[in-house]
Write a sequence for this structure.
């Protein structure tokens, strides 16, 4: 029997999912296996119990050997429209999109860089949304925010934008270090990137689009690594997209530098050869790399050098995104379908094991954010076929190359978050 996962949000009677596959990242014995199996009880008020000894009356028993139960997924960084751009995404729609993608926590990127804005989000946003605060005012990299005032209220600090001045970045890190909060940097040289919209090389020449040299990323990462060698402040490098970046980070980690890293999921399943149709939904920043970059990033996830896969859900309205490739704003959504696409492209092809993928979407990002290991609350059906459209998704935005297409796999975070 195939069950609609949404039914599990409010079942009419208790449901027992029999022999569901369990991927429990707390269990060291599962690190090289496909997981155990067990029975999962879901009550009408959505309390869950694994392998219950006593069953309630009128329980509905469903064979669930095709389903997977895993630790809740955690997204390091994504963007919301609220406040100010609610037509793109609201806190409520972002939270619902996260839940219907299997995510229990999402780190929401600034512009919430003032205490009043942070407090408003803390009071009004669903609890599965966590607040990053900007390191600098208006994320311009010129003047530090009131960091001491913000620190007790936020998840951590990031501008999610490149720093142009290394000296100022050094002073910022030295000031931030005593707070003990996660610090996330996007190492990217805007001067070298200039007005480029795709990776520089033969493909940019073929497509007639301005290119961004890989050096825009790698030179900035090298500079940050040298800075961390001196400051010794733990940092997380976001949006890694090149094979050379992986090499630099691996070398830094082997020297004991406190550096972790993440890749955005698009860069693991797409490459720049797919830009032939000039689809603005593949206009990303950093831009897609070539197949060599993509394979290097997959291997980096497998080895743990790049420990986390981020969604970087970036919503725009149809009017904002429906422009020529080079004039469209960079970014795409993905909270509701990243897991099934990564599963199909990486796990089913043998490039990553189920546990390697799940660890990079759950345990590792939670650890980087200072959170405990998420509970076993995400159910995933890798076989169900559904279409990505307004009727089947919670996000207000549709800026994705997968919009309107049918995909295999659907996830849901079960418990109230």
């Amino acid at each position: 029997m195939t069950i609609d996962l949404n039914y599990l949000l409010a079942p009419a009677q208790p449901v027992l999912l029999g022999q569901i596959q369990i991927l429990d990242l707390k269990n060291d014995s599962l690190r090289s296996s496909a997981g155990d199996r067990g029975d999962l009880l879901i009550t009408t008020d959505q309390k869950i119990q694994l392998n219950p000894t006593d069953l309630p009356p009128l329980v509905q028993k469903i064979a669930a050997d095709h389903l997977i139960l895993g630790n809740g997924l955690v997204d390091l960084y994504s963007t919301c429209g609220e406040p100010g751009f609610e037509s793109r995404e609201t806190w409520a729609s972002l939270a619902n999109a996260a839940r219907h993608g299997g995510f229990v926590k999402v780190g929401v990127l600034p512009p919430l860089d003032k205490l009043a804005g942070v407090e408003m989000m803390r009071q009004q946003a669903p609890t599965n949304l966590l607040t990053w605060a900007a390191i600098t005012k208006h994320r311009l990299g010129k003047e530090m925010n009131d960091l001491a005032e913000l620190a007790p209220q936020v998840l951590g600090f990031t501008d999610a934008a490149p720093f142009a001045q290394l000296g100022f970045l050094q002073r910022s890190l030295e000031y931030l270090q005593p707070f003990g909060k996660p610090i996330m940097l996007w190492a990217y040289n805007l001067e070298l990137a200039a007005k480029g919209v795709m990776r520089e090389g033969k493909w940019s020449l073929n497509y007639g689009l301005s290119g961004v040299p890989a050096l825009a990323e790698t030179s900035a990462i090298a500079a940050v690594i040298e800075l961390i060698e001196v400051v010794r402040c733990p940092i997380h490098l976001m949006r890694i997209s090149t094979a050379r970046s992986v090499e630099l980070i691996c070398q830094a980690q082997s020297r004991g530098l406190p550096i972790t890293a993440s890749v955005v999921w698009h860069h693991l399943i797409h490459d720049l050869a797919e830009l032939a149709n000039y689809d603005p939904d593949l206009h990303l920043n950093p831009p897609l790399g070539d197949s060599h970059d993509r394979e290097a990033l997959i291997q980096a996830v497998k080895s743990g050098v790049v420990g986390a896969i981020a969604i970087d859900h970036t919503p725009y309205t149809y009017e904002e995104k429906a422009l020529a490739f080079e004039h469209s704003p960079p970014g795409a959504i993905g909270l509701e379908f990243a897991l099934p696409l990564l599963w199909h492209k990486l796990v089913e092809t043998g490039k990553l094991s189920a546990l390697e993928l799940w660890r990079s979407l759950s345990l590792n990002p939670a650890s980087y954010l200072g959170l405990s290991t998420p509970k076993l609350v995400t159910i995933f059906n890798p076989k169900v076929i559904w279409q990505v459209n307004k009727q089947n998704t919670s996000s207000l935005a549709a800026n994705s190359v997968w919009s309107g297409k049918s995909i295999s796999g659907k996830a849901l975070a079960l418990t109230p978050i």
